[in-house]
Specification:
The chain is mainly beta. The protein has one domain. It is built from 2 helices and 5 strands. The protein is elongated and about 55 Å long. The N and C termini lie far apart (35 Å).
Length: 79
């Protein structure tokens, strides 16, 4: 499962994870480089307890490094 992460205001961080073989949303708060676990949720309705406005969340996408990109075979065709 690829890492899926959203960040929101006030240090809110939401990560889609697998826990005991089930998909869960792990909610944490990050303050001064310290992470505190808030809860694990299985539904968006449960998550709404901690998120005032889902539009405030920003998805964090980890791009592959240059060495990983160079190691992959090219899928380009033509000139």
């Amino acid at each position: 499962m690829a890492k899926v992460l959203w960040r929101g205001p006030d240090g809110l961080e939401i990560e889609a994870i697998r826990l005991d073989g089930r998909q869960r949303l792990r909610v944490s708060r990050v303050w001064d480089d310290h992470r505190t676990l808030v809860a694990y949720y299985s539904t968006i309705a449960q998550l709404a307890e901690h998120v005032d406005d889902f539009a405030d969340l920003v998805e964090i996408i980890e791009l592959p490094s240059a060495t990983k990109r160079a190691a992959r075979p090219s899928t380009r065709t033509g000139p």
